[in-house]
Fold CMP-N-acetylneuraminate-beta-galactosamide-alpha-2,3-sialyltransferase 1.
Amino acid sequence: LYFADYITTHSVCRLVMFPGRTSRMISKSKVLVFLLFFTGIGVYFKTGYQLTHYAVDQKLCACIKCLSEDKQLLLDRSNRSVQPFLTANLNLSQNEFNWWKDLQAESRSFRVYETTVANLFQIFPKNPDVIQPKYDHCRTCAVVGNSGNLRRSHYGPLIDLHEVVIRMNTGITRGFEKDVGNKTTHHVMYPESAVDLDDNTHFVLFPFKIQDFEWLINASTTGFTGRSYMPVKSKIKTNKDLVMVVNPAFMKYVHEVWLGNKGRYPSTGFMALILALHICDEVNVFGYGADSDGNWSHYWEILTNKRLRTGVHPGNYEYNIIQQLAQQQKIKFYEGLMKKM
């Protein structure tokens, strides 16, 4: 536009000085001004469109759908500001501690909690080993529950194709590889359900009391000698560099936001699923729910108690949320054969 102003001014000056020779020059100048003006406008809008188009196309991951881009996971229940894992610099609030300590009647103080967690990070990584989202990478995760619905499912090879395979509690693979696979990258446990792990598997601790932190410290070093409501392993085999501890504030968030305070607290399986929604780009779910008779059995055992239900956990409510997530195509839910019968 500055150039156009210059041309117009210059042409007027020539008209005053040389009236006979510049009339045709003014007409040509006007045409040139208009051409330059519209060319500039075209370049401006084209550049703006290209930048906007690039911003839209630039995804956070390489999956067809990225959970990390989803701003409304099941009626906006997902709050990505809640950190799933404890870190050395993450502080729990007094309110969050008060909620957490009531899960299993913890009687010790907030100060004891803080001291114990500080001791924990003297041994284990100060930050969790989490795969970060990348525009050219798709973090596929299989969350494998322990439901009897996995029997005769033949899901094993499909489960093992995932980059991250999350299992929980005493779930075993040996002898059941055809149905459940044999790959495990993350094993979610608490002391009373703990099993030994290989050097390539992350131990994900769900802590319910201060003693759970103490158990992890001692069971992986000198040995744990305390007691709990069930027998616990005095020592556990695990790679200390791959230990991750779930944030008690995240457990509170799952119970209040996702479950609406149903039940005493969420099941390990449900918390593992919501954890996957926070650290994965694509989540596929296996081995959840009761069998066709309504029993919550495990795939590796023969059920003898035909009245077995979910105890303190809101099993049916959790299962309904999983189905809603599947219906909204946030996850893919493989129900298994027994549920279909």
Residues 23-57 form the longest helix (35 residues). The chain has two domains: 2-57, 67-340. The radius of gyration is 30 Å.
